[in-house]
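Let us begin with a simple case.
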Amino acid sequence: MYGKAFAPEFQGALRNLSVNTNYEDALAKARAEVARATEENDGLALSQARLVESEACRRLGRIAEADVAWRASFRAAKAADEPGAMAWALWNGGTLARQRGQMTAALRWLGLARDAATRAGDVVALGYSVAGIAETLRIRGDYAEARDLHEKLLAEARKRGETRHTVWALEGLAQLDRNAGDLDAAWERFAEAAQIAEDGGDERGLAWALRGMADVLSLRGEHDEALRLLAKGEQICRRMDLSSALAYNRKMRGNILFRACWYGEATRTYEEAQKMFRAINEPRGAALAELGLLKSRDKLGRPRPATERDLIALRDSLDTRELRHTRKMVQDALDELIELVA
């Protein structure tokens, strides 16, 4: 029913790169192609190579380099009057903005990517742009709108038999189910996503699906099996140099250890995750890791007033417009702590 996964963001001379290519290797090949396209004054090829450079840098956590590369990709595409290439560059810029916690900018760039893809008649770029919008809305806490987009994307992806898009949409819907407390529905979607990703050779999608399955298992109290699945996902992240995914994998490990009441190990794990997120300038992940860290230290007997003070500082550091859902999670933890003290 579904074909083998491919990476449409790998274009031009780099289209033969596997969806599972290690990102250090992809970056080296992209930069070699940038040099060739620049020398030959090939605008479209330059835009395509810069896109791969940006995506590789983003996945590796080299945020400043990714920012320079996607903007260069867009400029080259615009100069060459290639709206399809412009759409892909804008998609990448929007995805990078979301990773940096800049949700308003992400929605702006992704909206422009959607418009450019529509003008170009690039169905795949259009799908990626709309999927990016759905994911950004979900992370920001706009669940109803995100669910509607994810469901439409899932139906379209199933119709065309696209492995990566199907997996992406299933994982988005599964996360919405999990957030709504419907663990059975979340498990079914994560498990289906994992199976489709594995069958289609989409290791990136598989790593995220395994993380989701581990989350659901731990919420059901099956902590050892959850850690086993998470370790399998970690191996994929390390093999492909997926810095952001690896940091979220580590943060989820902290969550599972916390739920299992292994607070000392959870504390050390959250500290590792926080360092990883800070190294790649990902504020949302860093805030979530710090939240877990504060809750773990509280369980280990840290004075409550100190924890309350730090939770307030963390809450106030989060922009209400950009990271309001993350801020709400911190506020919920603070309210729970105040209740316990009272």
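The second case is a distinct protein. As before, the sequence precedes its structure tokens.
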Amino acid sequence: MPRLKREPPVEAVDISVLDSLSFQERLAIGLERLKAQRKLTNRDLAEQLGVHEAYISQVTRALRDVKLSTLDKMQREWDVVIEDLLKITEADLPRVAVWKARRKKQKSAETDQ
């Protein structure tokens, strides 16, 4: 039986942290929620929008800005309101906690080099 990769324990996130999220972070979390709800991958999202998978990967990790034309395409292709992708609710707190833990891990790895 293959060993499962264990994720480090995730710290609870206080709802007040939501105010400090950037536009890119909010969109990344909203896209993660959309992917989970619709059981989609980054490849699926990229194909639907006609963009490269690497681009969507960077957007879903809040590493890249999104063009307005891409936001418009998201709205039309996925039948969503952009405001809903940017809205972060208490239900998203576990997703925010995982996302913040990943970012913290990446930053500590960068400083160790």
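Residues 93-112 form the longest helix (20 residues). The domain at 22-90 is CATH 1.10.260.40 (434 Repressor (Amino-terminal Domain)).
Keep these points in mind for the review questions at the end of the chapter.
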